[in-house]
Fold these 2 entries.
Entry 1:
Amino acid sequence: ETGVTQSPTHLIKTRGQQVTLRCSSQSGHNTVSWYQQALGQGPQFIFQYYREEENGRGNFPPRFSGLQFPNYSSELNVNALELDDSALYLCASSLAGTQTSPLHFGNGTRLTVT
Amino acid sequence: LAKTTQPISMDSYEGQEVNITCSHNNIATNDYITWYQQFPSQGPRFIIQGYKTKVTNEVASLFIPADRKSSTLSLPRVSLSDTAVYYCLSVTTGGGNKLTFGTGTQLKVEL
């Protein structure tokens, strides 16, 4: 069974640039969610995708967008990067019906915006 | 959006039982409570999940009172390797799914 993998592991971008982060779901999982975790804080929910459709979103501006592909892998895109976007970005996959299906997390992408 | 709060930190010694409480003031009727463990530079890892009363698995117990406004994660006989940050998570499904992590509790276990 393949776990959740994220790429890249580290990334440095300049303010105003755009970034794309990638996530491969655990085998058999059809739901993916993304989180932003600032240093010393808990993960903040960005959005969730189920069968290629967004089915939940946290309090993040529209410049945070995502995609889920037919193989259930996913991308997180962030436009017009700001310094405060520097954080660990986590992806988690689960089975449909997140209520009772535990989230399986990758180890994240560390994004630094300078 | 649900608001969940936890103690910032707790200290314990090996072999002791540790109880970490999470307050979730806006929990909805059908929300489940899940707890995760996170080590530095890693993603959170599932520990236990419950809806009400008591749930036990091979690593922890979860107590949820009747009003479900809080939950308590119980770790029996902790070891040094249990030093980590512990998060509770509630999932709200009204108007689209929203997943809210607690503020996190840094547990430090010493000899």
Entry 2:
Amino acid sequence: ETGVTQSPTHLIKTRGQQVTLRCSSQSGHNTVSWYQQALGQGPQFIFQYYREEENGRGNFPPRFSGLQFPNYSSELNVNALELDDSALYLCASSLSPGANTGELFFGEGSRLTVL
Amino acid sequence: AQSVTQLDSQVPVFEEAPVELRCNYSSSVSVYLFWYVQYPNQGLQLLLKYLSGSTLVESINGFEAEFNKSQTSFHLRKPSVHISDTAEYFCAVTPGDRDDKIIFGKGTRLHILP
């Protein structure tokens, strides 16, 4: 069974640039959630994708966008990067919403630094 | 909106001593509750969860948590900690009728003293 994998693990960008982060979900999972974890904080929910559609969104501006592909892998795109976007971005996969297990399986994250 | 409060940002404790990490949540509906652990330079892993049934839940490595509906709490305890328990612990909640968004607390860093 393959776990959740994210790429890249680390990256550095400058203000105003755009970034794409990638995530492969765990085998058998069709739901992917993205979280932002700033230094010293808990993960903040960005959005969730289920069957290639957005299924819930947290309090993040539209410059945070995502995609889910037919194989359930996912991308997080952030446009017009700001210094405060520096954080660890976590991807988590799970069984479909309504499966009521509530368990997320996390990748190790992509650490983004914006200069 | 639901929220999770972890009252302690850091908890230092001597090895082999007991520990309690506190968690309170705000909700008026049924909830699912979780504790996740994040070891240094790793992603989060589920430690234990409460979905329904017995209010006392246990993990395989000696942690336990008790769901207290009247106090809206889900405190995490371990009777004797080990150096390998050094990590950040996150309490989390999601509505019991849907699990499209899990809300995390800010975390408690458990620091084991030799």
